[in-house]
Amino acid sequence: MKYDIEADWVLLDTCNYRCGYCPIPHEKLGSKIHTFATVDAWRAAFDASGKTWLAHITGGEPSAYPDFVELCEALTDKHYISLNSNMSNRSLIRFANSIDPSRVSFINAGLHLEERQHRSGVDAFLRHAQELRVTGFRILVSVVATPSILERFEEAIRLLEPIGLFPIPKLMRGPFAGALYPNAYTDADKSRFRTYSRLAREFYREILSRIDEPPSLGMLHDDAYVDAVPDFTGRMCEAGRKFIQLEPNGDVFRCGGKDRQGNLLDGSFVRRLRAEPCNSTHCYYFCNKYVAPEATGAWTLPRQWWSRLRGGSSRVDG
Predict the structure, then answer these.
(1) pLDDT given for residue 311 in this prediction
(2) Element (H or E) spanning 235, and its range?
(3) 3-state helix, strand, coil in the chain (%, to 5)
């Protein structure tokens, strides 16, 4: 994969789930899906930039977007995508049989165990994840690691075993059930988290050794942050040049809803020329990837792990 810039693209806010730890307000999750442009208009907007993109498509639940498969087909003609999905929508079967897996970096399949069981969605998850896996897509299954889920983690392992997948504990961040995470994790929570992270790394090692770069969502390293989430403030970062945040209406921000850089759809997007100091908070997965390599004290654990896995350099040129 050779691309110039990555977008964390919130395609829509709407979702069929109401997970208690979701940062999106429930009124937005239940809102009517609003499409701001046609498939052809989105394709033209990305193409007109003159750059090759890696679009990380998330939400909400992106697979519920009208013409979702057609949009992915259009984008992957010249660009690359990755996907964050709860695996509930039947459009994923068409996706599996229509999209070239070589144009998809990875799929993060969110196994929201408690919400899925509440909505009788386990069978759909397994069916869709299996179809994507056997058709050649690289799937990582993540489980948001609430304390109650960490206690039930063996259940998630058994659930995924028949389709050849393994759950990755994903760090809880921010407020949940009256506490602030990851600070609220107990010693027992942290011990479970570290154990299951280690097992997940071993499970996915062979799969990831066959791709050129680590997935942008470095969930396999979340056990490094159970005591504290890294702070990148002031560090030189490529956000705005090699990475941007893309909103449903095409608005572009450098990171975290700050420093608007125009709109992709109307052609006013202006890419930054160089790395600049971090002045925001977004998602440390992307921060880890795009903090400038020379930044003093940068959290380089994902790069180091990938270098060991690949047996050489892990530098990514965007």
Answers:
(1) 46
(2) none
(3) 35, 20, 45
- pLDDT bracket for residue 313 (50, 70, 90): very low
Q: What is the tens place of the pLDDT at every residue in 266-283?
A: 999 999 999 999 988 778
The amino acid occupying position 145 is A
**Residues 176, 146: contact at Cβ < 8 Å?**
yes
Q: If 0-12 CB within 10 Å is exposed, 13-18 middle and 19+ buried, where does residue 34 land?
A: exposed
DSSP letter (8 states) at residue 259: E
Does residue 182 have a cis peptide bond before it, meaning omega lies within 30 degrees of 0? yes
Q: How crowded is residue 117: how many other Cβ atoms within 10 Å of its Cβ?
A: 12
User: Three-state SS for 148?
Assistant: helix
What is the token pair recorded at 293? 């390599």
With both helix axes pointing from N to C terminus, report the angle between 39-48 and 68-75 in degrees, rounded to the nearest 10. 20
More confident residue, 298 or 170: 170
How far is the C-alpha of 52 from the C-alpha of 4, rounded, in Å?
5
DSSP state of 220: G
Give tens-digit pLDDT for 51-63. Answer: 999 999 999 999 9
pTM for the full model? Answer: 0.90
Altogether, the residues listed in the chain come to a count of 318
